[in-house]
Amino acid sequence: PIFPLEVRDWGNEEGHGYMYDLVVIGGGSGGLSASKEAARLGQKVAVLDYVKPTPYGSRWGIGGTCVNVGCIPKKLYHTAAICGHNLHEAGFFGWDRQNCKGE
Questions:
Q1: What is the pTM for the complete model shown?
Q2: 47, 62 contact by CB (below 8 A)
Q3: Gap between the Cα atoms of 46 and 2, Å rounded
Q4: DSSP string, the chain
Q5: CB count, 10 Å around CB of 35?
Q6: Is 24 helix (H, G, I), strand (E, B) or coil?
């Protein structure tokens, strides 16, 4: 490597002088996975995450963009749209659409 790295096992060195063994920047899926695994292995972990509220005041807690406003909500809306389309088409397959109403 261009910059040789010194590999040290901080978790087994008593009194290394740091408050945390691992500090993770970002509470998205990757950051949470890394922090949970490190904690499972006995490391003291801190997760730093901040989301600037939108002009509409939208904000969310830990989980990142994908979980809160990106991938997961998009998949939920996509699945709901498919369900609505299937309900609309159900009459062509003999289903009674009179009682199929969304709220």
A1: 0.53
A2: yes
A3: 29
A4: --S------GGGSTT-S-S-SEEEE--SHHHHHHHHHHHHTT--EEEE---PPPTT-----TTHHHHHTSHHHHHHHHHHHHHHHHHHHGGGGT--GGG----
A5: 20
A6: strand
The alpha carbon of residue 85 and the mean position of all alpha carbons in its chain are separated, in whole angstroms, by 29
The angle subtended at Cα 12 by Cα 11 and Cα 13, nearest 5°, is 95
Nearest alpha carbon to residue 18 among 39, 60, 46: 46
Q: Give pLDDT tens digits for 36-81.
A: 999 999 988 999 888 787 788 777 777 777 777 788 888 899 999 9
Q: For residue 27, with 0-12 CB atoms within 10 Å meaning exposed, 13-18 middle and 19 or more buried, which class applies?
A: buried
Which residues are CB-contacts of 59 (< 8 A; sequence separation ≥ 6)?
51, 53
